[in-house]
Amino acid sequence: MRLERLTTARILACAALFAGLLVAPARAQEVKAGDLVITQAWSRATPGGAKVAGGYLTIENKGSVADRLIGGWGDLTDRIEVHQMTTSNGVMTMRALDKGLVIEPGKTVRLAPGGYHLMMFDLKSPLKQGDKVPVVLEFEKAGKVKLSFDVLGVGAQGPGTPSGGMDLK
Ligand SMILES: [Cu+2]
């Protein structure tokens, strides 16, 4: 069992290396808004008919006061909520952060699968790998910030990961 896991990890590490050799370093989109710097905004392709999709990104607060990510909307969705995924006693639960997600000064907050994430509701069309999905995110202090999610593969864990769906075109 343990051996098997190690082997899988090795294969994944290999795949990552291999992908890294083939794919030119992706120039990550960097969006500045006031004291905030937002990078690595991405989402996942939605399999047949799914009406919701997650959104992930990294937010750095270079300022001296806290800001708060409240939510947003976009071309394909009228409602984006900030959610938190937690696991307790083996059960995963998701809840909306009604008061938003605080980005403390000097800190970097990463929204990623299994933790904080954005949730796009009532998608008007499916997300396809390779698409860019324009959204507007609303912050308490930085205001409305335009950016787009890079749509990766269905099982992607993030940009640049083996299953990240970096296309080789
Ligand atoms: Cu959610």
Count of all domains: 1
* Amino- and carboxy-terminal Cα gap: 37 Å
Over all CA atoms, what is the radius of gyration? 17 Å
The number of helical elements comes to 1
Topology:
Blueprint: H1 2-22, E1 30-33, E2 36-44, E3 53-61, E4 67-74, E5 79-88, E6 91-96, E7 101-103, E8 108-111, E9 116-121, E10 132-139, E11 143-152
Parallel strand pairs: 2-11
Antiparallel strand pairs: 1-2, 2-3, 3-8, 3-9, 4-7, 4-10, 5-6, 5-9, 10-11
Bound molecules: copper (II) ion (CU).
Copper (II) ion binds next to strand 9.
Features:
mainly beta; about 170 residues; single chain; Immunoglobulin-like; eleven-stranded mixed sheet; 11 strands; 1 helix; binds copper (II) ion
Structure, explained:
The protein is mainly beta and 169 residues long. It has one domain (31-152): PCu(A)C copper chaperone (Immunoglobulin-like). The protein contains one helix and eleven strands, in the order H-E-E-E-E-E-E-E-E-E-E-E. It has one helix spanning 2-22, and strands spanning 30-33, 36-44, 53-61, 67-74, 79-88, 91-96, 101-103, 108-111, 116-121, 132-139, 143-152. Strands 1, 2, 3, 4, 5, 6, 7, 8, 9, 10 and 11 form an eleven-stranded mixed β-sheet that branches. A hairpin with a 3-residue loop joins strand 10 and strand 11. The radius of gyration is 17 Å and the shape is globular. Residues 14-25 and 165-169 have low confidence and may be disordered. Copper (II) ion (CU) binds next to strand 9.
